[in-house]
């Protein structure tokens, strides 16, 4: 392994902007250097540049010498997610078909948890007084029934912008996916009258059936257009400092897009960080020869769960996004507010609760010494002995144990417990929520936890996932050596991914010539997208997926097509694959014999191969398989609630462990920027890729 960055090998940089820390990974294909810096929400460029500069300094040269040698700079960002979560987006106006003004307000029946844990209606994206209907109508076949009234449309836009002070508009008409002419004309008219106002067309973004989801997609996209400024500023600063390649952004479906595409569809950057982590997990699971895993990412703000099947992340094409049901292709991730910065508190019943409110990077946990006074999960781990104050982030940061004890003690006084009992309770409540989230994700996919491995990452993940694995009866846990910065590593590994969709809405079997025609149109669009992203023809591939459902049902399942020659699709095999997946999710008994199947949408997925970071970097040294690792020290850790529950456990230095080493629990492994808890009777083996493979006692 190289200790100094090798300019002649090129390099890759990946960055993940989290709620608490901004993580950076730099690799030249031989060595790997990582760094963390507090996230700067007001100006993400500051936190990103500081983290990348620190990683470059650890590699030897200064950042301005490294950037020109980099062949890939990938970024996962919370900029859009934060705007949605805090409802801090633009004032959006909606112009829709007259008579359908109540479509969005009527659908606000969904409930979410507020900061105090109560169920409440999500904050609105568009106010009712900023929704206007105009005269126009297209029927289900795309024929114009009522022409668009251009004068009425312009008057509506003037009212929304000049009177209601809307600074972004969404246009979504009924059946526009069949014939988008009215929406296209509306956008052109408004752009001519108000060239500085962002105008978004639902049919242009998502030309598929379901006007509500198409409308909310347009609304969300218009709502977050202002969140892109920080990313453009970062891109400009990187170019000024010598970055010669375009900045690539990880999007919600787990691929990368260019800055230009993200500018067109900024809402696609929602859940960017979790998607990057899942993409890296998929690469790692394939490398380890375990293609089916459940991923658990625990960072500073949230605990995210996803499923990888056959070495590929499970994706969904619609669902809830920050309290809004919409159409958006994204990695299927379930998140709960249980991260290292999640705050412990007492509810109105005097019960201990954890999250969803987080201390974030400012003021942070009490033990950070940055002004935080509320006890967090990190404070609890420090009080219980799972974290060493002087070794946090490899010694870059020293934690204040006394402050953590005081914070836990203050909360404990409300609960009738001392600081140590409170810390134990915070940890146990957090674990209980995580176990529920993991079981929920497994159940949703019809998976048996006894047949699953957990792939754990995030700064705090290794201290919780072994206990989660024990609770659900998992086969074991995989914890990468890069666990704390795996999402950043994922940002340096994802291919460019572009999708286009067309509605079919035909019973099976579909006319092969219709599919071929639609497929050719989609393929041309996707190839144009990849060309615009700078992907050479030799690096492009295009595949197709079919969204199928039983007749009159409202949910589709996406099934990959086995061929790119759509006139040769075997419809019988396609239906069988659909029914197999349906049975896996809902049970074979839920399928009615002879029930007709509908082909709802055809989707083209274009992939552009890019320069990528390699998992092989930094893992050239090995020891003989089964070599016992050397204990570095021991530490008192509270492993039971009752008094006297502290036990002296062995502590191993992560930097001293090489592929081939083994050890047994109870123990702690202290890596550069993460700590792993090894329960009693569990065995750890270091794999060739630097992964801690925990075999749990059954």
Please, could you describe this protein's structure?
By secondary structure, the chain is an alpha/beta fold. Helices cover 30% and strands 27% of the residues. Strands 15, 16, 17, 20, 23, 24, 29, 32, 35 and 36 form a 10-stranded mixed β-sheet that branches. Helix 1 runs parallel beside helix 9. The longest helix has 26 residues, at 419-444. The chain is globular and about 80 Å long. The model has no long low-confidence stretch (mean pLDDT 90).
Q: Tags for this entry?
A:
globular, ten-stranded mixed β-sheet, alpha/beta
Average of the residue pLDDT scores: 90
Task: Tell me the number of strands.
Answer: 36
Helicity, as a percent range: 25-40%
In percent terms, what proportion of residues is strand?
25-35%
Q: How far from one another are the termini?
A: 37 Å
Shape: globular
* Secondary-structure content class: alpha/beta
Low-confidence parts: none
| Total of DSSP H or I helical runs spanning 4+ residues | 18
